[in-house]
């Protein structure tokens, strides 16, 4: 079995879906294709959920936008009106419409997951119908019937044993050679939807690769492979041809958003090779992530995380921030489900960074204020450099106002004020782009 994963950009319009059909048309082996929601529709679903939660009047308009986006895609894809498909899509929208007229009956995160799942259900329904229509016979799999997870909504953990049994029964290569299924979602203990965390479809593909003992996995992106920096922020980037698992896990952990951080572990456990390839230039070799050592000479890698919020806590009365304090702070961090991007502590302070988009910042700060002096600073960026040299660091930090820095043998992290207007000139092989 081979596993392919296509993200939101690769299914963004009719042309993009036709392009995918060419890529899968080249495969003569059993293939499972994991597909994300069409470009930006998960963001739109988040707006719908927020509008529903805050009882805003525009919820129905937003839902109508989402519907039009999908109907336009269908009309662009099919030459003849596909009645069966339209009925399926109408049914999915009727379910969503029924949800937004009722108040939340359970926790925000639970309700979020029930709604967010429709993005992938819609996209895969359309992609599967189109492939069948053009003769690429496939089986649409509702991944909720296969992947069991716990009830940690929005960041659910897979239950590996029961999922393995189901996956092996459903994705039987002899039953069907092409399977189309959803990334990002799974089933909770009662069979309702849960999600694996934003951008989690890469992880779904890796889970299936592991459960089905796949021969290889390919994630198809709009870049030539993993580059030594995000091309949205830097020009003159270089493609990395080969990355060992242990390095890939570090890069994604520090925020190289081309691969979801949880993707590597299941693949590494069974030594399944992962290719990151371009759906625009599918014949190009891409990046291979596999076991082995880092190729020499080491190339510096740059990772930028924008829109960071620094939260600084200080004890009253100059007393130490000790183990009890850290225990208290981390309990709150755990309670709010905070993803920490950076931490540092001194004798009387503890600071940490979270993404600006984290919705419970205010609640967390209010709870911290019960015990500490708390300050918040917005609009910061975290710059991580792997395999740095003194010259690289001097150049990358030159036009930034650095607030905090941390270094170990391989990695330097800088927390800086938002990007300055002056781009870095000739920074090693890179140039930072103007925002
Ligand atoms: N080191 C990197 N190498 C390549 N792309 C990167 C890197 N860091 C960030 N990116 C960004 O990742 C994007 C592709 O990932 P993503 O948008 O998550 O794809 P998808 O939604 O299709 O899964 C690229 O367009 C690029 O802007
Ligand atoms: N649709 C989900 C899951 C995902 O992985 O999407 P993408 O592959 O487009 O990053 C999200 O946007 O979070």
Automatic annotation (TrEMBL):
One of its GO terms (cellular component) is cytosol. It catalyses: L-aspartate + ATP = 4-phospho-L-aspartate + ADP. Pfam families: AA_kinase (PF00696). Residues 2-278 form the Aspartate/glutamate/uridylate kinase domain. Keywords: Amino-acid biosynthesis, ATP-binding, Kinase, Nucleotide-binding, Transferase. GO terms for molecular function: aspartate kinase activity; ATP binding. Its EC number is 2.7.2.4. InterPro entries: AceGlu_kinase-like_sf, Asp/Glu/Uridylate_kinase, Asp_kinase, AsparK_Bifunc_asparK/hSer_DH. Pathway: Amino-acid biosynthesis; L-methionine biosynthesis via de novo pathway; L-homoserine from L-aspartate: step 1/3; Amino-acid biosynthesis; L-lysine biosynthesis via DAP pathway; (S)-tetrahydrodipicolinate from L-aspartate: step 1/4; Amino-acid biosynthesis; L-threonine biosynthesis; L-threonine from L-aspartate: step 1/5. It is an enzyme of class 2 (transferase). GO terms for biological process: homoserine biosynthetic process; lysine biosynthetic process via diaminopimelate; threonine biosynthetic process. Belongs to the aspartokinase family. This is Aspartokinase.
């Amino acid at each position: 079995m081979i596993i392919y994963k296509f993200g939101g950009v690769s299914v963004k319009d009719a042309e993009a879906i036709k392009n995918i059909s060419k890529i899968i048309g080249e495969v003569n082996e059993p293939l499972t294709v994991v597909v994300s929601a069409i470009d930006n529709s998960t963001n739109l679903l988040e707006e719908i959920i927020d509008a529903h939660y805050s009882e805003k009047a525009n919820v129905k308009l937003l839902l109508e936008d989402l519907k039009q986006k999908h109907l336009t895609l269908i009309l662009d894809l099919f030459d003849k009106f596909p009645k069966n498909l339209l009925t399926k899509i109408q049914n999915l929208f009727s379910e969503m419409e029924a949800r937004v007229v009722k108040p939340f009956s359970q926790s925000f995160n639970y309700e979020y997951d029930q709604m967010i799942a429709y993005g992938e259900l819609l996209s895969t329904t359309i992609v599967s119908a189109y492939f069948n229509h053009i003769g690429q016979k496939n089986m649409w799999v509702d991944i909720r019937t296969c992947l069991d997870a716990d009830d940690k909504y929005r960041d659910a953990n897979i239950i590996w044993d029961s999922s393995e049994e189901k996956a092996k029964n459903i994705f039987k290569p002899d039953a069907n050679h092409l399977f189309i299924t959803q990334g990002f979602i799974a089933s909770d203990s009662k069979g309702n939807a849960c999600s694996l965390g934003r951008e989690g479809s890469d992880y779904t593909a890796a889970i299936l690769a592991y459960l089905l003992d796949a021969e290889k996995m390919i994630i198809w992106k709009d870049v030539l492979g993993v580059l030594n920096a995000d091309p949205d922020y830097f020009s003159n980037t270089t493609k990395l041809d080969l990355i060992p698992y242990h390095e890939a896990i570090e890069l994604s952990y520090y925020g190289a958003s081309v691969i979801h951080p949880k993707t590597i572990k299941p693949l590494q456990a069974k030594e399944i090779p992962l290719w990151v390839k371009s759906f625009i230039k599918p014949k190009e070799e891409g990046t291979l992530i596999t076991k082995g050592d880092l190729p020499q000479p080491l190339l510096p890698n740059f990772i930028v995380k924008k829109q960071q919020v620094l939260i600084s806590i200080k004890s009253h009365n100059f007393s130490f921030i000790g183990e009890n304090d850290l225990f208290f702070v981390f309990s709150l961090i755990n309670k709010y489900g905070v993803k920490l991007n950076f931490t540092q502590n001194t004798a009387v302070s503890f600071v940490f960074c979270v993404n600006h988009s984290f919705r419970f910042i205010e609640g967390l700060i209010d709870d911290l204020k019960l015990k500490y002096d708390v300050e918040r600073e917005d609009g910061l960026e975290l710059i991580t450099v792997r395999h740095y040299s003194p010259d690289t660091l001097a150049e990358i930090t030159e036009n930034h106002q650095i607030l905090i820095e941390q270094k170990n043998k391989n990695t330097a992290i800088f927390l800086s004020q938002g990007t300055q207007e002056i781009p870095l000139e000739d920074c090693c092989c890179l140039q930072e782009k103007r925002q």
